[in-house]
Amino acid sequence: MSEALFRVEKLTRRYSDPGREVLGLDQVDLSLAKGGRLGIVGESGSGKSTLVRLLAGLDRPTSGRIWYEGTEITGLPERRLGFLRASVQMVFQDPRSSLNPRMRVGDIITEPLRSRLVRRQLSAEVDHGARLAEVLAAVDLPADAAGRFPHEFSGGQRQRIAIARALAPKPEVLIADEPVSALDVSVRAQVLNLLTELVADQGLTLIVVSHDLMVVRHLCDQLAVMRAGRIVEQGATSDVYSAPKTDYTAALLAAVPKIRTGAGRGDSEPPGRFGEPKSGREGAHQ
Amino acid sequence: MKKAQLVAGLVLVGLVVLAAVVSLFWTPFDPIRVVPGERLAPPSLTHFLGTDGFGIDIFSRLLVGARTTLAVGIISVSLAAVFGVPLGMLAGQAGGWVDDVVMRTADVVYALPALLLAMLLASVFGASTTTAMIAIGVASIPAFARVARAGTLQVMAADFILAARVSGTSRWGVASRHVAPNIAPVIGVQASVGFAMAILAEAALSYLGLGTPRPNPTWGNMLRDAQNYLFVAPLQAVWPGLAIAVAVLGFNLLGDGLRDYLDPRLREVP
Amino acid sequence: MSLLEVRDLTVRFGRHRTVAVDGVSFSLAAGGRLGLIGESGSGKTVTALAILGLLPGNADLSGEIDLAGHRIATLSEQRLSRLRGDVVSMVFQEPMTALDPTMRAGRQVAEVLRLHAGAEAGPARDRVVAMLAEVGLADPERVADSFPHQLSGGQRQRVILAMALINAPELVICDEPTTALDVTVQATVLEKLDQVLDASGAACLFISHDLAVVSQVCDQVMVMLDGRLVESGSVAELFTNPKHPYTKGLVATARLDAVEPGQRLPVVEDFYHPATGESR
Q1: Distance in angstroms (rounded) separating the CA atoms of residues B111 and A240
Q2: What angle, rounded to 10 degrees, do the helices at B114-125 and B180-207 form?
Q3: Using CA atoms, how far apart are residues A89 and A84, in angstroms rounded to an integer?
Q4: Which residues contact A224 (CB under 8 A, 6 or more apart)?
Q5: Which of A126, B188, B218, C202 is 20 to 30 A off residue A207, Cα-Cα?
Q6: What is the Cα–Cα distance from A8 to A80, expressed in whole angstroms?
Q7: Which domains does chain B have, with CATH numbers?
Q8: Complex ipTM more than 0.95, yes or no
Q9: CA distance linking residue B91 with residue B175, whole number of Å
Q10: Does C118 touch chain A (CB under 8 A)?
Q11: Would you give the end-to-end CA distance of chain A in angstroms?
């Protein structure tokens, strides 16, 4: 690997619950080049969230090592992680939980700029007001949003606020942990379009965690499939998608719900093809 | 409906505060000077609530007693909050052995009743309003620490704490910007309930002679005086008892009302 | 006669009389499967709660709801609670909060059975275990003896399904039953739901924001927007040939697979603009 932004070697994370030990992550190797778009898929408990939390420096591995831009981050104390905090940002699943209900949107978004750890990394003092206006515009929120509280916004808008916060320190890497699974289908496409645009415009390296293969297929060019703490399949998204090597990946793909437009319930149509419209069972009418 | 609670609490607490403030400038009679000729007078136009066993106007003593009650409440609750809340937040945020040490210590203090502390302090420094305040305040620290810790744990589980850490926010920043504002409502409720508890505790200590000594009036020592005449003039005990009940009820209602009012999430349209 | 008949249902909330449901009419025949699609805040859950007679005290309801020959608005709370469970039951979105964390799963299912059928403890246990097996739980005895936190999300949701079905109700209302689940778990839960509904012949009102999920379970579907029904019809018809611009937008935006990766996805606003209500 020539210019790996993130490199991970034999990463293991055990959790000790009272009475038993849980293996969150088991000997994972991974490498991600600058500008790459990596999707990590798997069921809950497969270790995908554990992996990205380790990458973001939010948790410490039991064993194994992580390098970011050639610097090993495992074992560094919090005060020396400033470079990571300034360049790796995260968007979480549920904006109801990821936005402090008692802070105004403007304060939420500029929080990364106020951290002393991050400020030391920035070359010049950033004008908070100007940056706030920039990122609000980038996520298509009105400028007057800054003075309001999160609960005054819809779910999709709240996720935009979370994305704006992540963009504020001009990060190199954006980690999105299930960015659309708490959102209505009707606003999912908007957020996905926004992420696609931002990644292209700002040259971000993207890591997306999802249990939905279709979301990852849309956003990412590389794919890692996780199960029980291990990466069971890895490759270019289009390859994995069209010819999954493991049954597990195939099952994940098959489980993505597709719009069924034919009659007979149960036999879902393959994606991309509409079935014959036949009349459904009598039951409801307006 | 919820607002009615808050308003009722404010009105009752307002009454107590009003009594305390008025007593600073005016009382119908001297609340301390003994008038032997007017002992145990029944309520009349001159003495609204009658006079006590020393011939002192009860209404005047009630007004002045409100002052002691509020002072003890404010000082002891502040004392408990100033030590209890940061300790609870520390325990909740740090976890591990820090949490264990803080909370086990709190358990030990919790096991010491305010009464015992008050007796200790009174035996060393002599019984006074100050020893009662300190005893009640110290005894209330564990309650504040527990409430603050529980609230902190709940806040720390939210994703915005992770987001703050990803942004390099320091522990101090997390505590001041994220934890403190989010636990403020529960602390407010605890303060109100703690105030009610403090009023009761102060009354009990004065009643036992471990608080404010005579001749300075408090609702507790008025009750104590009244018990001597319980069968001759039972109304004597009713007045301070009623005052205590009104104040305790007021602060409890205020606490509940505040909790609902302070939470912006509850104001969201369904 | 239909099992459920809703005529001109309007629900307002609070002092400002905010309209949550606005003149909704529909009917559902015995054994029918009706989907109700809409985004959060569109009034779909309020509609379900109105049918169950579970609206909060500050709600103001007009219109008529007839369920299995009963007019909901006229029933006493006692009659209503008999109706819930006997005739109609509900599956909630969040399997963790819908179960009592201090009670073993089997007892919670048995409780429902006891309340409505008055069954004895011994035979109730057998029926509970049989029901847990029927909803596809591999080890029903063990699940029955487990506390909710010892079960996975999918297992919990199947326990809820068992609770909803054990009294053989005529109507099961499902409110986003799989939204909190992984896709793989969602697929198996939906499949089981489909099977048990078929086996029992119960009708189903299925509420979701996810068109694909609704299309897996239902025959008929209605689309709700800002408290109003904007379109309804058979699944086949509505999803292939949507008429209302909002429905067109919903159908287009739901199909991630129809767009090349990285290309712009269609959004609802391409078809329908909320402010003006006009199509583009």
Answers
A1: 63
A2: 60
A3: 9
A4: A30, A38, A39, A40, A41, A231, A233, A234
A5: A126
A6: 19
A7: 2-21+71-264 (1.10.3720.10)
A8: no
A9: 12
A10: no
A11: 61
B136's tokens: 């009640």
Query: How many CB atoms are located within 10 Å of the residue C280 CB?
Result: 10
Looking at the complex, does the CB of residue B28 fall below 8 Å from at least one CB of chain A? Answer: no
- Verify whether the Cβ–Cβ distance C213 to A189 is below 8 Å: no
Q: Please answer whether residues C273 and C280 qualify as being in contact, where contact means their C-beta atoms are separated by less than 8 angstroms.
A: yes
CA Rg value for chain B: 22
Q: Do C235 and A283 count as a contact with CB atoms less than 8 A apart?
A: no
Give, in order, the Cα–Cα distances in Å from C160 to each of A276, C53, C96: 35, 20, 10
Respond yes or no on whether the N-terminal peptide bond of residue B215 is cis (omega within 30° of 0).
yes
Q: Which residues of B touch C56 (CB under 8 A)?
A: 270
> What element of type H or E holds C66?
strand C59-67
How far apart CA C47 and CA C66 sit, in angstroms, is 13
The β-bridge partners of C206 are C35, C174
C114-117 contacts at long range (C-beta below 8 A, 24 or more positions apart): C115/C85, C116/C82, C116/C85, C116/C86, C116/C167, C117/C167
CA distance A14 to B241: 60
pLDDT in tens, A91-145: 999 999 999 999 999 999 999 998 888 877 776 777 889 999 999 999 999 999 9
- Nearest-neighbour CA in chain C from A17: distance (Å): 13
User: Two tokens at C108?
Assistant: 């919670």
In terms of C-beta density within 10 A (0-12 exposed, 13-18 middle, 19 or more buried), how is residue A235 classed?
A: middle
pLDDT digits 0-9 by tens, A195-230:
999 999 999 999 999 988 889 999 999 999 999 899
Whether A283 has a pLDDT exceeding 90, the answer reads no
Q: Are C160 and C91 in contact (CB under 8 A)?
A: yes
Rounded Cα gap, residues B188 and B131, in angstroms: 25
Q: What pLDDT score does B40 carry?
A: 79
Closest CA to C85 of C117, C123, C39: C117
Distance from CA of B163 to the nearest CA of C (A): 22
pLDDT of A273: 31
Residues C204 and C218: beta-carbon distance below 8 Å: yes
d(CA A218, CA A61): 30
- Global confidence as pTM: 0.84
A85 and chain B in contact, CB less than 8 A: yes
| Ranges of residues in chain C whose predicted pLDDT is under 70 | 1, 95-96, 117-122, 275-280
Which residue among C187, C236, C259 sits closest to A278, beta carbon to beta carbon? C236
B170·A99 Cβ contact <8 A: no
Residue A225 near chain C (CB below 8 Å): no
pLDDT score recorded for residue C95:
65
DSSP string, B63-109: HHHHHHHHHHHHHHHHHHHHHHHHHHHHHHHH-HHHHHHHHHHHHHH
Alpha helix positions (H), C166-206? 183-200
What is the reported pLDDT for C277? 52
- Token pair of B85 as six digits: 């809340």
Query: Are residues B188 and B85 in contact, defined by beta-carbon separation less than 8 angstroms?
Result: no
CA distance A209 to B260: 37
d(CA A285, CA B33): 87
